[in-house]
Amino acid sequence: MKTYKIAAIPGDGIGTEVVSAGVEVLDALAKRDGGFKFEVDNFDWGGEYYKKHGRMMPDNGREQIRNHDAILFGSAGHPEIPDHITLWGLRLAICQPFDQYANVRPTRILPGIVSPLRKVTNKELDWVIIRENSEGEYAGVGGRVHQGSSLEAATDVAMFTRAGVQRIIRFAFKLAQSRPRKLLTVVTKSNAQRHAMVMWDEIAKEVAAEFPDVTWDKMLVDAMSVRMVMRPESLDTIVATNLHADILSDLAAALAGSLGIAPTANLNPERDFPSMFEPIHGSAFDITGKGVANPVGTFWTAVMMLDHLGERDAASRLMNAVERVTADERYHTPDLGGKARTADVTAAVIEAIQGSNV
Ligand code: ATP
Predict the structure, then answer these.
(1) Pocket-forming residues, ligand 1, beta carbon under 6 Å
(2) DSSP string of 262-289?
C-alpha cells in the first residue's frame, strides 16, 4: 500500500477548521480506496506561533517539510500582526524557495450554487486561472528611505525574468492544451507598463508557436475584469502575473458563488520540491470558532492534491462527492445563504464517499 506523507499547516483563523475537515475527508477516501493511505504531520506555524517565538515558522521549517509528498495549507493571518509579516513569514517563505511558480486556480459553478451573475451556470463559467507565483510584483524587491520623515520614499519593483515568464506561459499553454476547448487568454497591462509587460506579450507569441493547436488571445487586465463579468463563456484558461492573477482570481471566486469554495495549488511542476495546496480564502476572523466555515474550498483543494499525487480515481471520487453535497441546499453554509455547519458538510461528503460507486 502506498503511503503519502502530508505536511498539514492549518495556520490561523478558519484555516485550522477547514484543514482538519480536509484531513478527515482524505482519511475517509483512503479507507474507501484501500490502495493508499496518508501520514499527516501537523505543524502549528502561523500567527499564534509568531506571538510565542517572534517568527511565523522555525528557522529550519522548510527542512522539516522538504521531503513530504505534499503540503496542505490553511491560511496565515492574524488581527494583531501586520499582513506583510504573516504573508512573507510563512506562505511566501514556503512558495518562493520551493519554487512553486505555478499557482493554479480552477473556477466553475458547482451544482446547487448560484452565481451572482444572472443566468450564468457551469456551461458559461468554467475557467482555470494560472498565476505566476515566484516573481513579478511580489518579488520583494524595493525599499524605504527616510522612514517616518516627510522625505520618506518607498519602492516596490516588479521583477520579471525571461526564464520566469517563459516557464509560466509554457505551463499555461500546456494546461490549456489539456482542456477540451484549448483556449488561452494571456493577461497583461502592456499599454501602460511598457517594459516587462511588453516582454510578456513577446514571450507569449514565441511560446504560442510551440502550441499550434491552442487558440490564444491577449487582454489588458482592466478590460479582462469586464470580460469576466460580461462574457464569461468566452474564457477558458487564463494566465497572468502574480498581482493581476491574485486580483482576478478573487473576482473569479466571487463570481462562482463564494470565496469559501475556491481552491488553489502552488505547483513546483518539476517536482524538485513538494507542492502546496490551499483554499484561496483567508483566515476569516469574523467567523472563526463559530463552526460555520465552508470547507468546500479545502475539499476541492484536496482534489487537486490527489491529482498531483497521481491518485486520479480518488480525485474524481472526491470531486463527485463534493458536487453531490453542494447540489443539496441543506448542506449550504451561511456564505452560500444556508444554515449548515462545517461539520454537517464534512459528514455529508464523507457519507457520499462511502456510498460512492465512482
Ligand atoms: P486574507 O487577507 O487572509 O486573504 P481577508 O479578510 O481579506 O483575508 P477572507 O479571510 O478570505 O479575506 O474573508 C473574506 C470574507 O469571506 C469574510 O467575510 C469571510 O467570512 C468570508 N469567507 C472566507 N472564507 C470563507 C469560508 N471558507 N467560509 C465562509 N466564509 C468565508
Answers:
(1) 14, 75, 77, 83, 259-260, 281-284, 286-287, 293-294, 297, 333, 335
(2) -EEEEE-TT-SS-EEEEES----TTTTT
